[in-house]
Amino acid sequence: MSKTDDQKVPTAAPQMDAAQTQAPEENAADAGGAGRAYHQKRKCAIIVDSTADYAPEVARQLGVEVIPFTYVTPEGEKVDDSWATSDPHEFYEYMRRNPTVHFHTAAVTPGRYYEVFERYAKQGLPCMYMGLSAGLSSSIDAARQAAGLIRQNYPGYEMYVLDNRCDSAAGELLAIEVVRLAEDGLSARELYDWASDARYFIHGYFTLENLDALAAGGRIPPAAASIGGKLDIKPELSYDLNGALTLRGMCRGRRKALRAIMADFRENYAHDTTLPLAIVSTDAEKDADWLENEVRKEQGCEDVTVIRSQVSPILGSHVGPGMVALIFWGKDRRELSKGSLTGRIARRVRGDTDEK
């Protein structure tokens, strides 16, 4: 019964009518009404990890199990507990004051995944794990290894591992809808098939205060980060179909980068305000406020639910303080990629017969 997320899935758009409308002054933790029935019995256990940057109250109302990643500071190894025992401002302020100190993160081990999965296997309750993209971490491979062992030791047990193929709070938005559909009675297999398709309808665009953290992580040359800083270059980034970071463009100045994010929102937003969107940052609340205000100026978005949270130390260690992101449901990213030069090349390499 080994399953992976590489199998063929339906290409229909996700069910965009699943949520309920919520005014901005109401508690965003309800995530558009998603929290009302989460303690009902489900046909499937839903497991996630801390890299989805859940607002703590959202994670509680979802009723999902959150597997924490770990990170290493000068004080030693720590567990990402969604800021329960630490303060995000102090964490990112330390990074600002100590730019030569680089934090390290660690993937979850197969053994840890096995411990979690086995609890549900012993109950006979099917489960689905939704984890950080392989484009950013090897953790999803560890989860697949553990799932394979579970299937060997518990023959016939139904277990699914899904690569979110999107990062940060995009995983949170995906989990909200998966939980909602689980409450509607969908089976584990149906949830897996739905999420395998729906993950490509979530967009995320963000900018950074500087390029230093990316250079420290080896994602760009240090010289490029230095030149970018001198010229006040701010990148606009997103993620590709594998969940890996991709550069959208370079902007002269922070405000232009934020406006570029809003331009992508207007171009790609699904215009379904029954679905929540997310704004997250690494201690950049003023810019997060600016993005939310701009979103609410858009026609029909005055009362859209906006979930706000601080990025965890896991992803925050790699992007540094001052990152801000806007994440929302939108157009099918697979279709958008077909029109790009790199998308056309990729299709030709795969031998797609409809390539012109």
Q: Any overview of this molecule?
A:
With 356 residues, the chain is α/β, with parallel strands linked by helices. It folds into 2 domains: 28-200, Rossmann fold, CATH 3.40.50.10170; 202-338, Hypothetical Protein Tm841, Chain: A,domain 3. The chain has 13 helices and 13 strands. The strands form 3 sheets. A 6-stranded mixed β-sheet has the order 10-9-8-13-11-12, with helices on both faces. The longest helix has 15 residues, at 139-153. The chain is globular and about 60 Å long. The protein starts with 44 loop residues before the first strand and ends in a 6-residue tail after the last helix. The model is unreliable at 1-39 (pLDDT under 50).
Shape: globular
Strand order of the largest sheet: 10-9-8-13-11-12
Show unreliable segments: 1-39
**Rg of Cα set:** 20 Å
List descriptors.
single chain, 356 residues, alpha/beta, Rossmann fold, Hypothetical Protein Tm841, Chain: A,domain 3, 2 domains, 6-stranded mixed beta sheet, 4-stranded parallel beta sheet, 13 helices, 19% strand, disordered N terminus
